[in-house]
Amino acid sequence: MTTQHQTLSKALSRGVSYLDITPTMFREATEHYRAIAGTLQSHGLDADIKPYGSFGTGTVVRPSTDEGTGSYYDLDILAECHRDECGWTTPSSLREEVDGILEDDGTYAKMIEGSTHQCVTLAYAETDSRPAFRLDLSSGVHMDLPLGTDVAFAEEAVNLAWIDPDEWKGSNPKGLCKWFNDQNLRFRVYGLEARRKSLFEENPGAYASVEEIPEDMDRSALQRAVQVVKRSRDIYYRRAREDRAPSSCALMVLVTRFAEMLPQSSDVTTIVESFVEGCQAMRDGRFAIPNPAYPEDLAANWEQEKVDRFFNWIDELKLNLQADLSDSAKRDAAIDAILGSGTSDRLVRDKIFDPAPEPVRINRNVKPWRL
């Protein structure tokens, strides 16, 4: 393993950690979604609320819309609702009950930012101890095992309640989280104690001891690689003014699939490079991203233009990963292209990178020596 490879991996890991959910936000977001469950139950609605998406897999990254000033972290939660009798006859009847409880609650009514086809959004303003975040609450009911679903994830399958128009949308977001976390286990146990010690030292005052750190705040090389890929996507597509970016779900599946044959000791750079190489190998075949937890193709609706743009991004990411880190200008440009402007400066301040050499100044006013 070259010095360049090791330096890049360290830079990507530290750089993307700047974009992660903070310990305070994680603790408060967990408390808040549990409080929502308590509110629903106090109104007679039996519901289990669990995180899914990046919140459930430990791959959250800060939105790149404005490079951090006033931006919200978007965290996904799912209310799986239960009823012994006939249940809810339509998706809108379930959403009306869930959304209505929140709209009639004195606390949550003021926090509802909006309601969409898929979810209702609750906004939590920035405080002195954490950034602002949103909880996107989806509602659904358990569904029977869909044909073609891996039995290991069947218990998590749900019919999501979508409205305007009404649709019971079969899905398995919790099953996909379970699949990822199962795949991540071998990467997570490797170097665990060293990572927990670093996390404790990098967050003074957040934890009383290393032992107090929640398991969900640890980040393996696989989780960091997913975060790097997602952030690179955000930067590239925002710069291109293109809103048809690949979903975080699809990217997580691809990164994890291409890491399956890698050793558990693989670092972030190795995993991201395997993702790039794997994606480039898909260029000449049928483009599909099978969901490992539900019988669907996550790229089913990708038109050719979106596929072409995807490969353009992959090609650019590969070039940035190959940048010469011994050249500070090329190094900083590549890192900022992957993780966002200002990242390289912060890595210099944190002594991950050496600062750029001072320019040589020639005083042209000095008279030449005379004999």
Compile the SSE list and pairings.
Elements: H1 3-17, H2 23-42, E1 46-52, H3 53-57, E2 73-82, H4 91-103, E3 112-115, E4 120-124, E5 133-142, E6 158-162, E7 167-171, H5 173-189, H6 192-202, H7 221-239, H8 248-258, H9 268-281, H10 304-321, H11 328-339, H12 343-349
Parallel strand pairs: 2-5
Antiparallel strand pairs: 1-2, 3-4, 4-5, 5-6, 6-7
Put the structure in a nutshell.
The chain is α+β, with helices and mostly antiparallel strands. It has twelve helices and seven strands.
Q: What does the model show?
A:
The protein is globular. The longest helix is centred in the N-terminal third of the chain and has 20 residues, at 23-42. The protein is an alpha+beta fold. The N and C termini lie far apart (56 Å). Helix 7 crosses helix 8, helix 7 (221-239) packs across helix 9 (268-281) and helix 9 runs antiparallel to helix 10 (304-321). Strands 1, 2, 3, 4, 5, 6 and 7 form a seven-stranded mixed sheet that branches. The mean pLDDT is 91. Strand 4 and strand 5 form a beta hairpin. The chain has helices spanning 3-17, 23-42, 53-57, 91-103, 173-189, 192-202, 221-239, 248-258, 268-281, 304-321, 328-339, 343-349, and strands spanning 46-52, 73-82, 112-115, 120-124, 133-142, 158-162, 167-171. It has two domains: 3-19 and 219-349, Poly(a)-polymerase, middle domain; 23-172, Beta Polymerase, domain 2. It is built from twelve helices and seven strands.
